[in-house]
């Protein structure tokens, strides 16, 4: 059966720009295409499109949903398609073949889907690219949605009533949905940091863009509190397009306006290098339309290199802004969750608790010194080692000393004298080391008598990784904002690594996170409740990272591994969601089922006792006889 793609397009000059033409040609190779132009097309653009697709022109009213409705009507009998896709021209891409997207989503087994999901207003698939299976198209909810459709001229009302409303209406009818792009935990954290940054650091200049000034106090408060709203993945996670096209599009507003200060120029440059066909002509299109159609946003504080490196905006240090291209100058964006400088359930807090007030501390791979600042407040004298000169310069303002060197390439004993430190901190480092045991042995040589090594590393058996593997989501592509770890450790593996380096673990801590909100994102709609709950109940499945303190081993000694001390109570981070609620219901039903035979036996025993009592009581026996004679 064929597929259908309805493409809604609009241009003030009636032009089909190169990126839109590329979309039409790409869709036409995989489906029947209906191009719906709001406001009409120029003659040459109309002729070009008609050679590749059915073309519908309509008045510019009702936004994209009115175009979608017109395209569906023009397509005729939708039952002849095994997939119906509604898309608009608000993005560049997809940068992966549409067939790849179609096959992936067919394997998910859902009724309708989008490229991304958004939690703003309510959970919904975003309507710039959404697909519907025959079951969804034939449903009464889908038919009624378009039957009841009325063109609206208020964009906010269109979003609430139609974009959010479409998902809500179909979901309430029992149809399932999902999104092609599955964000990972670090992407969620970075997105929240970016949104918070925008809420704090953006304002509107009334002399430049008075039309953007909020009209009421309520609207102004909404703008100022934007950091508390769920992030829109299309904008806040736009650089994930460089991770092999996991997010297969880039929104035009991201490239034109850069509202989250992603360094849109660098993003565009590297997209042009990575996806030359899809981004051909995009730069010229932006240059010609930016002044007329762009939103000019005024930043309170420019996003300088220093601001990109400070503890609050560390998520912006993307590394793809170098002229050498995306493969050069890359560095880790943020080793820890955004905002993790506060709260006990975070690696820096647990590391600090293990270090205590040790006089001399070495932090290997100190980045901008986020841990060192905390340790300094505890009375420690902290020296750092960092390979990134820019990050090291920033850390040097807070730490006692910072040595610029790659700790994975230069032995620590070449940089410092033996016995120089009471504690050596190796935080989120060993998983990147070609020989982690050698790094530990090298660090051990720097310890003073009674000295310790403190290690922090992600848990390889965290539930999110288990679920990711079960559902086939596991990327080995190096990210443009992060190094790719070479290995990972479970609890037993970490203990073996320490033992191989002649170290004895004395304390073991762990930060906790529910498997569905951490590490590797997995689709939740199709996840069986039993699997989610089973994974949650497995040993260490709630432990996201380990923090361990270890001392040099005494020859011949035998020491038991320490018990893990969680940063917080597990029940405080375990989600109560549809999976756990259904599991609780099933468990209650099973308990009731197991109880039923016992209850039947109890009632039978009561009947037996009553019959015995009746047999022993002559008055009752006589009453029974009289009753039988009377009737």
Automatic annotation (TrEMBL):
<feature type="coiled-coil region">
    <location>
        <begin position="593"/>
        <end position="620"/>
    </location>
</feature>
<dbReference type="GO" id="GO:0032259">
    <property type="term" value="P:methylation"/>
</dbReference>
<keyword id="KW-0489">Methyltransferase</keyword>
<protein>
    <submittedName>
        <fullName>Methyltransferase domain-containing protein</fullName>
    </submittedName>
</protein>
<dbReference type="InterPro" id="IPR007739">
    <property type="entry name" value="RgpF"/>
</dbReference>
<dbReference type="GO" id="GO:0008168">
    <property type="term" value="F:methyltransferase activity"/>
</dbReference>
<keyword id="KW-0808">Transferase</keyword>
<keyword id="KW-0175">Coiled coil</keyword>
<dbReference type="Pfam" id="PF13489">
    <property type="entry name" value="Methyltransf_23"/>
</dbReference>
<dbReference type="Pfam" id="PF05045">
    <property type="entry name" value="RgpF"/>
</dbReference>
<dbReference type="InterPro" id="IPR029063">
    <property type="entry name" value="SAM-dependent_MTases_sf"/>
</dbReference>
